[in-house]
Amino acid sequence: MAGPTALAVYALRLGPGEELVTSLLKFVEDKKLKAPFVMTCVGSLNRATLRLANATAWNTNKIIHLNERFEIVSLVGTLNKAPHLHICLSDKDGKTVGGHVISDLEVFTTVEVVIGECAGLQFTREMDDRTGFPELVISSSSEKA
Fold first, then answer.
1. What are the residue boundaries of the PPC domain, all occurrences included (predicted)?
2. The whole model's pTM is what?
């Protein structure tokens, strides 16, 4: 656990056809952010691939491919090189679905994202044998130059 840090805030807007995760990772790389996270996100998507809650590293058959228009109700998570993002989407009837973002978040009309960064920290991932997934490691940015 880390102590108090300064916070920087960034905002960006994506347009039709852009892939959300790819665009976020490019933004993070271009800005050289070390401990970025999603503060808020609204917009719409045409497509998404999600892993559902009861999937494990050893049982990945709980992946769904969505190919219809959705509103983004929420997007949260960290944005290091191996991002850990969860999303909640609502369909044309207001029914929601959510899960761990795998890929294919294609923007329908627009996506507006506000990104925060914890100055002085660095987010990385290391494999955790207990979970079978690469898990978040938080360090001082001066520790991992």
1. 4-139
2. 0.85
* Strand stretches in 62-95, DSSP E: 63-66, 70-78, 84-90
Q: Where are the beta strands (DSSP E) in 52-132?
A: 63-66, 70-78, 84-90, 96-119, 121-128
SS3 55: coil
**pLDDT one-digit tens code per residue, 34-93:** 999 999 999 999 999 998 887 666 666 688 999 999 999 999 999 988 899 999 999 999
Domain extents in the chain: 8-140
d(CA 87, CA 106): 13
b or e along 94-119 (b: 16 or more beta carbons within 10 Å of the residue's beta carbon)?
Answer: eeebbbbbbebbbbbeebebebbbbe
* Token digits of residue 81: 């090189």
